[in-house]
From TrEMBL:
<keyword id="KW-0229">DNA integration</keyword>
<feature type="domain" description="Integrase DNA-binding">
    <location>
        <begin position="7"/>
        <end position="95"/>
    </location>
</feature>
<dbReference type="InterPro" id="IPR050808">
    <property type="entry name" value="Phage_Integrase"/>
</dbReference>
<dbReference type="InterPro" id="IPR038488">
    <property type="entry name" value="Integrase_DNA-bd_sf"/>
</dbReference>
<dbReference type="Pfam" id="PF13356">
    <property type="entry name" value="Arm-DNA-bind_3"/>
</dbReference>
<comment type="similarity">
    <text>Belongs to the 'phage' integrase family.</text>
</comment>
<protein>
    <recommendedName>
        <fullName>Integrase DNA-binding domain-containing protein</fullName>
    </recommendedName>
</protein>
<dbReference type="GO" id="GO:0015074">
    <property type="term" value="P:DNA integration"/>
</dbReference>
<dbReference type="InterPro" id="IPR025166">
    <property type="entry name" value="Integrase_DNA_bind_dom"/>
</dbReference>
Length: 148
């Protein structure tokens, strides 16, 4: 299959999935718009743009089919406009995301993650120590088990 063609809903749906790695296909209407197809079957739209330093920036727009081709083309045009103005769309998206996070939300997320981690660690510790505790100490009194 050719690497450059006009992106349509049907053409993107029919793109083959590679055995390993990724394939990149380029739109003929918007030359910087690409569709990346991974070996897992994921298809995503992105914009490639060379910077003044000579590096290539990739701005991921979204996944197909939740993002239709028409919307991907619109977003590609706006991303290319922002890049031409010297704005990095990826950095702007990251800044908006961080501005939306409050200290309370961050703390709640941390505590939820910590709670899950502690619960998992306690479960592992209990499984490891249960046989030793049960076999040798089943009939002993609590007072005799105390070390103080």
């Amino acid at each position: 299959m050719e690497k450059r063609f006009k992106f349509t809903q049907q053409r993107i749906e029919k793109l083959p999935v590679p055995d390993k790695g990724r394939f990149e296909y380029y739109d003929t209407e918007i030359s910087k718009l690409i569709c990346r197809v991974s070996s897992t079957g994921n298809k995503s739209f992105a914009v490639l743009k060379k910077t003044d330093e000579g590096t290539t920036k990739r701005v991921t727009l979204g996944r197909f089919p939740s993002m239709p081709v028409a919307l991907a083309k619109e977003l590609a045009q706006s991303a290319l406009t922002e890049i031409a103005k010297g704005v990095n769309p990826t950095e702007e998206k990251r800044k908006r995301r961080y501005r939306a996070i409050s200290l309370e939300g961050l703390l709640n997320q941390y505590l939820a993650d910590k709670k899950t981690y502690v619960r998992k660690q306690l479960s592992i510790t209990a499984r490891r120590s249960e046989p030793a505790l049960v076999t040798g100490s089943r009939c002993r009194s609590i007072k005799s088990l105390a070390t103080w």
